[in-house]
Design goal:
The chain is an alpha+beta fold. It is built from nine helices and 13 strands. Helix 1 runs parallel beside helix 4 and helix 1 packs across helix 5.
């Protein structure tokens, strides 16, 4: 098994239930070292928790994956009438990604309905279900739908219905103000401001985890925890080809091949943070990388498994 240079963060590799690699390195902030209890932004891996929230509500009949998404949003534009939660979960809705909305400051707070209005101001890039285009704004809409369908704030729903049942005691969603053991993002060796996680990145990149918690999270596909078997299968099914050879997107997961074997996985990239989480079913290995250093190339995690 190869090594990965890691100046700040946590690297965990497990085979079955045995932890084979545990590396904790560098500083969480100017005054504290990284420890196993340090929470990092997992960035776009947060989309998996949003997908789980939607599927939990679907299991309970509170919403349907083929609902018009406008049923769960205030004043949706007519152009969104054909978009469903399934389209948003699979990035086939036609909504753009952050680079398509240059007027949005990812680090600045936003009023929720005004943010939706900004998203609505850009016509869909294509008809729902006809193409694949990665879209964090689509997952923001899903988080709003979770709030509407559950009658609870999104972060509270994750805390009560996702993290608590799995025993992910170090995980939370949203801003880290007032919390202990949180890593500060760094770029070029300097701390950088966090993106807004309460509204702008809600559902798309808002979750903080310890390395151990994220390893536990991988037991959702691996052991079928939290969700019924049909929902777990739907999460990791190859719903939409991404355009890269042999790769598709499920509900919050990339499905394909890494390091020469089947994998369900996702990476994350918020300002000052990088993350990766993947399960490799053929060898029953799980790999988690969390770092508060923007320069880490998470594609190098493949080398760890060889």
């Amino acid at each position: 098994m190869s090594t990965l240079s890691l100046d700040r963060g946590v690297l965990l590799v497990a085979r079955g239930d045995d932890l084979q690699v545990e590396r904790v390195a560098g500083r969480a902030d100017a005054g504290s070292p990284c420890t196993p209890s340090t929470r990092f932004q997992i960035a776009s891996i947060s989309k998996q928790m949003a997908a789980a929230a939607v599927l939990l509500l679907a299991e309970r009949g509170a919403l349907r994956l083929d609902d018009p998404i406008g049923r769960w949003l205030p004043d949706p534009p007519a152009a969104w009438s054909g978009i469903t939660p399934h389209h948003l979960l699979t990035h086939t809705s036609g909504l753009g990604h952050w680079e398509d909305y240059p007027m949005i400051d990812l680090a600045a707070p936003a009023e929720p309905d005004k943010l939706l209005a900004v998203f609505a101001g850009l016509p869909p890039l294509f008809a729902p279900g006809t193409r694949w285009h990665y879209s964090s704004p689509g997952y923001v809409l899903l988080a709003r739908a979770v709030e509407r369908a559950s009658g609870r704030p999104y972060a509270a729903f994750l805390a009560e219905e996702v993290f608590a049942p799995l025993g992910m005691t170090g995980s939370f969603a949203g801003a880290a103000a007032g919390r202990d053991d949180v890593a500060t993002g760094h770029e070029g060796g300097r701390p950088v401001p966090s993106w807004d996680l309460d509204t702008v990145s809600m559902g798309a990149g808002d979750v903080w985890c310890t390395g151990a918690d994220l390893l536990t999270w991988l037991d959702v596909p691996r052991r079928g925890r939290l969700l019924r078997p049909a929902a777990v299968a739907a999460m990791t099914a190859p719903h939409a080809p991404t355009g890269r050879p042999g790769e598709s997107y499920g509900y919050g997961w990339f499905v394909g091949t890494l390091a020469g074997e089947r994998a369900v996985h996702h990476s994350g990239d918020n300002g000052g943070y990088k993350a990766f989480a993947g399960w490799f079913p053929d060898s029953d290995r799980r790999l988690v990388l969390l770092t508060n250093q923007a320069e880490v190339d998470v594609t190098l995690v493949e080398a760890v498994l060889r």
